[in-house]
Amino acid sequence: MKRFWFKKAIGMVACAALAIVALGFVIMTLWNHILVVVLGIKAITYCQALGIFVLSKLLFGGFRGRGHGCIGGCGFRGKGRELKEKWQNMTPEERESFKQNWRSRCRTWGEKED
Question: Could you tell me the residue ranges of all domains in the chain?
Fold first, then answer.
């Protein structure tokens, strides 16, 4: 059993390392083939591409895992459970009023496209 977990951990480390290498290469390639031509800026190296990736994650997304229910720090993290409980405690009239309120805010909510 220990051998299984050891192999799994090694595989995960290898996949993470491969993903970092691939992301650095993709960022470098896109930067050098798009931004150099379009904006006339200098080309970057692989290490600079990794630095840009780390900087962008720190500034815009952080290094948290998936499943936080929030993209880009929207302020609704952890509110899903509260909203679900609130919805379950509403009477049918309150639910309909809630739906109507949101329909008036967003005209296409609940409408089917042809």
Answer: 1-61, 78-106
Rounded Cα–Cα distance for residues 67 and 63 (Å): 12
Q: 2-30 vs 46-56: helix axis angle to the nearest 10?
A: 100
Task: Place 102 in a pLDDT band, splitting at 50, 70 and 90.
Answer: confident
Closest CA to 69 of 59, 56, 57, 82: 82
User: How many angstroms separate the CA atoms of 111 and 52, rounded?
Assistant: 42
pTM over 0.70, yes/no: no
Q: Which amino acid is at 14?
A: A
3-state secondary structure 34-49: HHHHHHCCCCCCHHHH
Render pLDDT for 9-60 as a digit per residue (tens, 0 to 9).
Answer: 999 999 999 999 999 999 999 999 999 999 999 999 999 999 998 898 888 8
CA angle, corner 111, sides to 106 and 114, nearest 5?
130
Q: What span, in angstroms and rounded, lies between the C-alpha atoms of 55 and 7? A: 32
Q: Which two tokens stand for residue 99?
A: 């739906």
